């Protein structure tokens, strides 16, 4: 879910402690029609997510799951808008609390309808999520968040009751897609019309994930001074890596590519917020669910500092006594 508080995110960037993380659970499934994705926050926590992050030396605070009131609003071809507007407003308020506490934010969805000024966003996803209520074939809001976020597309929307608090302050020039392979005709038109930075799977295959990440950063953050936000849809990974998700598309990122992308973004020291969305523990058998949860853990850990080369010793320790190896 990526409709957050732009002002609080940018304001907090200069005073972040990168060892402090706040987790927000968003058990939300109203942006699409497949139930089960709302179970993901608790499922990931019960599987040991917080412990996995604390072993990295992080100070982790769980801000609980978002609870909200349903707004009595509706707009043509925007399913469950009352739920979406209520949930995103509450999420924005909770995210602001986390930022004001000086913590980086990890948002666990939920579907991708939950989703800032000097901010750059990397949208790692099989889908572009660029539809409006006029172009969407399904009316599912999880296919609309980028179009809702960006100022250049504001004129393509009708008045959205219940969403007055959310202003599209983000420029589409500050968004980069990685891993696209299922893009609607209208979405492709918008990408080409506005010159949006978009790397599909054919680009990943041509250049490799390492170069794609850095090409994307050079486009959306040429001066290396923006706060970075990653919205990672688990369906960006190939279904063989993460089968328990609602809209799988074959031919996606390998888990190794996903991990490397997050490692590189962590190394910038400017990654201040991350969404992990669309894990659905009701899809597939236990093996499928375990595989998907494991993949999600690897992606999150890489974003928050785990390196496959091994963790560094605590500060002040420069040598190991010989008896350690005996």
Topology (SSEs and partners):
Blueprint: H1 6-12, E1 20-26, H2 40-46, H3 49-54, E2 59-65, H4 81-100, E3 104-109, E4 119-124, H5 145-149, E5 175-180, H6 185-194, E6 197-200, H7 201-207, H8 209-220, E7 227-233, H9 255-267, E8 271-277, H10 286-303
Parallel strand pairs: 1-2, 1-3, 3-8, 4-5, 4-7, 5-6, 7-8
Helix pairs in contact: 7-8, 8-9, 9-10
Please report the number of helical segments. 10
Q: How does CATH name the architecture?
A: 3-Layer(aba) Sandwich
The number of distinct β-strands equals 8
Shape: globular
Structural domain count: 1
Strand order of the largest sheet: 2-1-3-8-7-4-5-6
Estimated share of beta-strand residues: 15-25%
Largest sheet: 8 strands, parallel
What assembly state would you assign to the polypeptide chains in this entry? single chain
Give the helix level as a range of percent.
25-40%
Spatial extent as radius of gyration: 19 Å
Tell me the series of helices and strands, N- to C-terminal. Answer: HEHHEHEEHEHEHHEHEH
CATH class: Alpha Beta
CATH superfamily: Ureohydrolase domain
Structural class: alpha/beta
Cα end-to-end separation: 50 Å
CATH fold-level topology: Arginase, Chain A
Overall mean pLDDT score? 83
* Uncertain segments: 1-15, 112-116
Cofactor: Mn(2+)
Pathway: Nitrogen metabolism; urea cycle; L-ornithine and urea from L-arginine: step 1/1
EC number: 3.5.3.1
Family: Belongs to the arginase family.
